[in-house]
Design goal:
Elements lengths: L10 H10 L5 E2 L12 E2 L8 H4 L11 H16 L15 E4 L7 H10 L1 E2 L8 E2 L1 H11 L2 H5 L5 H10 L5 E4 L5 H14 L5 E4 L10 H7 L10 E4 L13 E3 L4 H14 L9 H11 L4 H5 L10 H10 L6 E4 L17 H9 L7 H14 L5 E5 L6 H18 L5 H8 L4 E2 L3 E4 L7 H9 L8 E2 L5 E2 L10 E5 L15 E4 L1 H15 L1 H13 L5 H4 L3 H15 L11 H12 L9 H4 L7 H14 L11 H12 L17 H7 L12 H8 L2 H4 L9 H11 L5 H9 L2
């Protein structure tokens, strides 16, 4: 299904707007309607065919406006049906039945020809059209392409060209009934047996396609027609005796395959802080302001008092900073496949006065500050994601640009957001482990006489409490970009203001060498050895030695030194204070989440650095390949005692399990045939391990790790002696 309407083009968004009774009536902008009695209309605004067709839009650059709408809607329907990219369709069996009227007249040139051909003296001074004069001017003014685009069949023709549809391409023109008649005529194509594929997805309680109906359609044929039946309905629409038949369950495999392709194409993640911890930060730090952000302004012109208050804050010249802790996902305005989320598209279309999404509200507040005199401010992301200031900028900029493009805000608003002297989006690196409220801390507080210490699980699955248990160590490194000034907080412990390049270096030091790789190594082997607390792992001789070798021996020689923090001192604190902290109840199971997305940045960058250094040899990296082999051993879902466990969520978990299928604990290699495609995958490890000279070593480690119960411990003891 696909549509292009004055209310938008997203199926769910438009449907909800229709249910709400939203109106798309606006002053007419496509032409000057000032001399007409009616100056308003329901226009499709901001339409860009390239949004739907991409580079193919150039092929239809001369198409009339109605044909462009038809192309966009049919493209959405084609993709919605899952046909995009399908290479097995016979183009001679793809047909089009369209219900559409004539295209728009080439108005300006037509009127110019009519005026030139008008004889004012004819008809006794009443005037009349001189056909000869009109024709002479029309030949000069009118364009052949524009004239042919008025033909009712042109839209169907454009669609046929776009999808290489070489079957019937028909159009019916019966005024307002055209689309309904087109659907009826298309149905008759199926009834006559002209269709090769029958797709049904209704809410009918009984079969809509039966063996009897098919037999009737085939009556008179020498042989029954071969058709593919696709049943997307629940309960079933198509008689199960018909074949070949694909049901919605049969399509699950295809959907999973497509999802894997999307995951493979996703950019390499640098670090992800668990969403519930970020939500906890927000709940506690911004408790008073949460009602203002969580309750959107109503669709009617009247605004809530809370929203008015928050807007008035943004209109105040003295406001210097607005900070954000909304998790990495909070900045996303598009899905994994690159499509704008429906709720974001709804805000794009509604404008600053009627926003519903979080970033939409932020953009609306920035619009209020712009209207108050383009007042300066810095929007500071405190989320633990790479280049967080850019993520926030891109999200706010998208709203400003769209509103300006759709004439819902002045173009100067988008320029205001882009003006570095007016609006800052500094990068920041925050490092302070703050897990969920711990039961041991609750017990300690109760023993000391504190009341009301119980933690509460929210409807979103997060935990909040009247206290926060966090580590003593803390770092906040912020790019010094504050157009309206900032409070003097650099005297606080661990707070540093610096240039953007240094913020990036601090983050790379932490993520690529001094903290995150150590966490990942402990997570993988901790799960295999039955640990449930990261702090307990540091009491294990082999696991402690594991992180010390990765950090000091293999990581430090190529660490990115930011200058403002000493990398060795940072690792010292991590190994001796932070990870062993018993009041930080972090688990290896949580940290092992999405490991496939972390290996490239946490370990691959170190390998690349060794490759670039003439004074270093990649062959000196002995333990990082052991972590890679350990991860695949972890993916098998069997601990070192031979007991099954469920690995944490990971977008590549199913794919890795399938790649390792057939390997059992106690098996003897060689495993090269199964391991080589994995260890050669630079998307996972950042490099092809075989090209780097580490692939065979990782294979050897894996063979030792799967040798039998206790093999993980024996392998660690062997190489960490």
């Amino acid at each position: 299904m696909g549509w292009v309407t004055p209310l938008g083009d997203d199926i769910e968004v438009v449907w909800q707007r229709l249910l709400r009774g939203d109106s798309a009536i606006r002053p007419t902008t496509l032409f000057d309607a000032g001399t007409f009695p009616t100056t308003f209309s329901a226009e499709v605004r901001g339409f860009d065919m390239a949004k739907y067709l991409g580079p193919d839009a150039e092929r239809h650059k001369d198409a009339s406006r109605n044909s462009r709408f038809a192309l966009a809607a049919s493209t959405m329907a084609w993709r919605s049906a899952g046909l995009d990219g399908c290479k097995t369709l016979d183009p001679t069996r793809i047909g089009i039945y369209l219900g559409g009227g004539e295209g728009p007249i080439d108005f300006d040139h037509f009127v110019a020809a009519a005026v030139a051909g008008w004889d004012h003296e004819a008809n006794g001074g009443r005037g009349d059209l001189d056909a000869r004069k009109w024709a002479e001017r029309a030949v000069q003014e009118l364009q052949a392409v524009s004239e042919s685009e008025q033909d009712p069949n042109m839209a169907a023709g454009h669609i046929a060209c776009q999808f290489d549809a070489q079957g019937p391409a028909l159009n019916t023109l019966t005024a307002c009934a055209a689309s309904t008649q087109a659907m009826g005529e298309a149905t008759n194509l199926i009834r006559r047996g002209d269709a090769d594929i029958v797709i049904s997805a209704t809410k009918s309680p009984h079969f809509t396609v039966t063996q009897e109906a098919v037999a009737e359609a085939d009556a008179g044929r020498a042989e029954p027609k071969q058709r593919l039946y696709v049943d997307l309905a629940v309960p079933r629409d198509i008689d199960p005796t018909l074949s070949p038949l694909l049901t919605i369950d049969d399509l699950q495999t295809l959907a999973e395959h497509n999802n894997e392709l999307k995951r493979d194409a996703a950019s390499e993640a640098e670090t992800i802080l668990e969403e519930e911890l970020e939500t906890l930060f927000k709940d506690l730090a911004f408790h008073d302001l949460l009602p203002l952000l969580n309750d959107p302004p109503p669709g009617a012109p009247a605004l809530t008092e809370d929203w008015k208050r928050l807007r008035s804050i943004f209109e105040t010249p003295s406001l210097k900073i607005a900070s954000f802790t909304i998790t990495e996902k909070g900045y996303n305005i598009k899905s994994a496949d690159g499509e704008v989320f429906p709720f974001v598209e709804a805000d794009f279309a509604a404008g600053p006065a009627r926003v519903g999404s979080y970033i939409g509200k932020v953009a609306a507040l920035m619009y209020a500050r712009f209207k108050a005199g383009e007042l300066p401010i810095s929007l500071v992301s405190m989320d633990n994601c790479s280049h967080n200031g850019t993520r926030l900028h891109d999200a706010v900029h998208a709203f400003a640009a769209e509103w300006a493009r759709r004439d819902l805000a002045e173009p100067a608003f988008a320029e205001y957001v882009e003006n570095r002297e007016k609006v800052g989006f500094p990068w920041s690196m925050i490092d302070k482990i703050t897990p969920r409220p711990d039961d041991k801390v609750i017990a300690m507080l109760k023993k000391d006489g504190f009341e009301d210490t119980e933690s509460v699980k929210t409807s979103k699955g997060t935990f909040v409490a009247p206290f926060v248990n966090a580590e003593e160590t803390q770092y906040l490194v912020v790019e010094d970009w504050f157009p309206n000034g900032r409070p003097n907080i650099e005297t606080a412990r661990g707070v540093l203001f610096t240039e953007r390049e240094t913020v990036d270096k601090v983050e790379r030091m932490k993520v690529c060498t001094c903290l995150n790789p150590l966490h990942t190594a402990l997570a993988v082997f901790g799960c295999l050895l039955g640990y449930t607390l990261i702090s307990d792992e540091m009491k294990d001789r082999e696991l402690r030695k594991l992180v010390e070798v990765i950090g000091y021996r293999e990581g430090l020689p190529v660490v990115v030194d930011p200058g403002v923090l000493d990398p060795k001192e940072f690792i010292d604190t991590v190994v001796n204070v932070r990870i062993p902290n018993v009041f930080m109840p972090d688990t290896p199971q949580r940290i092992a989440t999405d490991t496939s997305q972390k290996l490239a940045i946490r370990f691959g960058e170190t390998i690349k650095a060794y490759q670039k250094r003439p004074d270093l040899s990649v062959s000196d990296l002995k333990i990082i390949p052991l972590v890679f082999a350990g991860w695949l051993r972890y993916v098998m879902g069997v601990d070192d005692n031979g007991n099954a466990f469920q690995p944490s969520d990971d977008p590549m978990l199913d794919r890795m399990k399938e790649a390792l299928s057939g390997i059992r604990l106690g098996d003897v290699g060689p495993f090269a045939e199964k391991l080589r495609p994995i260890f050669a995958n630079s998307r996972i490890f950042g490099v092809d391990l075989y090209e780097a000279g580490l692939g065979e070593l990782a294979e050897m480690y894996f063979a030792e790790l799967v040798a039998g119960p206790g093999a993980v411990r024996k392998t660690l003891q062997k190489y960490l002696a």
